[in-house]
Design a protein that fits this description.
Chain A has 13 helices and twelve strands. By secondary structure, chain A is of the alpha+beta class. In chain A, helix 2 packs antiparallel against helix 12, helix 9 packs antiparallel against helix 11 and helix 11 packs antiparallel against helix 12. In chain B, the strands form two sheets. A six-stranded mixed sheet of chain B has the order 6-7-8-3-9-10, with helices on both faces. The chains are: A alpha+beta (about 400), B alpha/beta (about 240). Chains A and B meet through helix 1, helix 10, helix 11 and helix 13 of A and helix 2 and helix 3 of B.
């Protein structure tokens, strides 16, 4: 019975004796593993990107906006005013809050104005919101505080800055407690929001100023005459399970309140979670597809190993015969050739993993995606390459072990 | 002297197309421990088949052969591998050294399959190479050695497993006359030290240098004589 250390050194010596051939054989596995690792990492990165934008929108969220949905599936731009664009009101929001399954309702009014502070100016989105907006959007305060309901009703001149606005206006300064000028008035910064990053469509969600809804309507928004209208109502459901039911309930309720029939709606309820979920599923399928195509190249690499091992068995017939004459059992020969194949494939797997990670890093930085490499996937890639070695090395090793020593020694 | 090899009514049949070839057709003989003996015969006489069976590389169709109390016909493939490793030392016409390994590593090879620890087998291999006169060439690859030197490495390898029997197949066939004489002298020395040696050859010159000649033809033993004395046909039956 052969010692394990002798088995390993014997296989290593056989592989080193023909380094170019060993390298080319391993190359098939290297390319296979590298492409699987890189493609799966790329796909996972895209998936993580989509999931991140789901999370940044807030979970279990319905967004009600004025205007009907186009037949093409999109929503008409709500800027520009005109008929039908001021159909949502604070009263609508209060009515929605009475529905079953609602966790929180946050009406908001959007405006755009210049913000001047600290000798700098910036042109962010200004959202007039109620305090519940943060809960609806799963948003946290990074420093300072949010205004409360009393301050909101009193239309106080206080604001909370998004991370981008805070950085642009107060690059070296704590913005909390500072004064800014907006639309001719002076406002105090009482808080800074946590960063949310880009939205699914690539817009910077941190380029925003939150102000009390009443303040925006009275002091910033130009539409003072339509005091009750809002540009958006965020509705957070109590759980994902009731989200679709709640969407229908909101639509029914608003039709009753607006006295419209289905198909003539003057509002649209967007279920963003379901849209992004679909996107996440699509990227996941995409990941499997990329991984699957790459796995084919790993298969080809395995066939390359089998091919070379068969050539090697033929070339070394005499050596195998001699080893058997000197006392090698079938198991010894089987293990030696099997180990050569597994060594080739696992070495190829490790090199392929390194190249694959490097390739994934290159591609994700090129496409500005997050780099997602799970230790599980890396381990699986190595284990799978080992399996390829076992599967495709088994037949040549078996052939070697079965050789008749008399015939083998006679071979020139 | 006790018997090392006992063969009774040994038969080996091969099928060649529709024909059945009687490679061995009822062979009986005994070889005692410490003997130095040659099996001779032309090609097709059955001597190679007999050698393969004695070496545990092949098994008889019928009859019985025991070597150092091992019943060759009753052993599995793995048992035969262990038998070859522990009981037989092979010497081949074409040396059969592995070209990638040094002389020392070639001698170590059977001990690797014997599961002997590296330190012990390296020491033993070095001692055996010194014994065959190659103490200064242990690190050489086979291609850096002459034919005679390669055959000495092969003989050292045959001795590595402390075998009961050295089995040599045309050991001088690939060597020039003088080198062949040197190798035969080495065998004689080893036999004088107690090794049992069987040489298979077609060359009567070689056979007469041993102490006993078994002559085969058409699957039968046709002569069995002590060299330098009268024939003693079937003396051991």
């Amino acid at each position: 019975m052969m010692r394990t250390s002798d088995l390993i050194s014997s296989a290593g010596r056989a592989l080193r004796s023909n380094p170019l051939r060993s390298a080319l054989t391993a190359l098939g596995v290297i390319i296979g593993v590298a492409s699987v690792v890189a493609m799966v990492a790329l796909g996972s990165g895209a998936q993580a990107q989509v999931e991140r934008s789901i999370a940044s929108l807030g979970s279990n969220l319905l967004i009600v906006v004025p205007g009907a949905q186009r037949s093409g599936g999109g929503v008409r731009a709500q800027a520009g005013g005109g008929m039908g664009w001021d159909t949502l009101t604070i009263d609508d929001a209060e009515a929605i809050a009475q529905l079953d399954g609602v966790a929180v309702v946050a009406p908001s009014q959007r405006a755009r104005t210049q913000v001047i502070a600290n000798g700098l100016n910036w042109n962010p989105q200004v959202e007039g919101v109620t305090p519940s907006y943060l809960e609806a959007r799963d948003w946290e305060i990074a420093s300072g505080r949010m205004f409360d309901e009393t301050e909101e009703r009193q239309a106080r001149r206080i604001i909370v800055l998004g991370a981008t606005v805070a950085n642009e206006l107060f690059p070296n300064l704590d913005p909390v407690g500072q004064m800014v000028r907006m639309n001719g008035g002076t406002f105090e910064v009482i808080g800074v929001l946590e960063s949310k990053g880009q939205s699914g469509s690539g817009a910077d969600q941190d380029d925003v100023v939150l102000a009390p809804l009443t303040t925006v309507k009275r002091r910033i928004s130009g539409r003072r005459g339509r005091g009750d209208s809002v540009s958006q109502i965020s509705v957070k459901a109590q759980s994902e399970d009731v989200l679709n039911t709640l969407q229908q309930d909101v639509e029914t309720l608003l039709r009753q309140r607006h006295r419209t029939r289905e198909g003539e709606d003057d509002f649209t309820v967007q279920n963003l979670s379901s849209i992004t979920e679909t996107a996440a599923q699509t990227t996941q399928v995409f990941t499997y597809l990329l991984g699957g195509i790459s796995a084919v190249s790993l298969l080809v690499g395995g066939i390359g190993i089998m091919n070379i091992m068969l050539v090697s068995v033929t070339e070394r017939t005499r050596e195998i015969g001699l080893r058997k004459a000197l006392g090698a059992r079938q198991g010894d020969i089987l293990r030696q050739f099997g180990l050569e194949a597994v060594t080739l494939s696992v070495a190829g797997g490790i090199i392929g993993l390194i190249l694959g990670v490097a390739g994934a890093w290159l591609m994700t930085s090129l496409f500005t995606l997050p780099l997602v490499i799970s230790p599980l996937n890396a381990g699986l890639a190595i284990a799978f390459s080992g399996l390829v070695g076992v599967l495709f090395g088994a037949y040549p090793a078996w052939r070697a072990a079965q050789l008749d020593p008399i015939e083998a020694l006679r071979r020139e | 002297m006790s018997a090392l090899i006992e063969a009774q009514a040994l038969v080996k049949l091969y099928r060649m197309g529709d024909e059945t070839v009687h490679a061995l057709d009822g062979v009986n003989f005994t070889i005692a421990r410490g003997e130095y003996c040659a099996i001779v015969g032309p090609s097709g006489s059955g001597k190679s088949t007999l050698m393969n069976i004695i070496g545990g590389l092949d098994t008889p169709t019928s009859g019985r052969i025991t070597i150092a109390d091992n019943d060759i016909g009753a052993m599995s493939d793995d048992d035969l591998a262990v038998f070859r490793n522990q009981t037989i030392g092979f010497v081949f016409q074409s040396f059969n050294l592995l070209p990638r390994l040094t002389a020392l590593e070639n001698v170590e090879l059977p001990m690797i399959y014997g599961g002997i620890i590296p330190k012990e087998r390296r020491e033993r291999a070095a001692a055996l190479l010194a014994r065959v006169g190659l103490g200064a060439r242990m690190g050489h690859k086979p291609t850096q050695l002459s034919g005679g030197q390669q055959q000495r490495v092969a003989i050292a390898r045959a001795l590595a497993g402390k075998p009961s029997l050295i089995l040599a197949d045309e050991p001088t066939g690939a060597l020039d006359t003088n080198t062949g004489i040197e190798i035969m002298a080495l065998f004689r020395e080893l036999n004088a030290e107690g090794a049992t040696i069987v040489i298979v050859t077609h060359d009567h010159e070689v056979a007469t240098q041993t102490r006993r000649t078994i002559e085969m033809r058409d699957g039968h033993i046709v002569a069995d004589r002590v060299n330098g004395q009268e024939a003693r046909h079937d003396a051991h039956v």
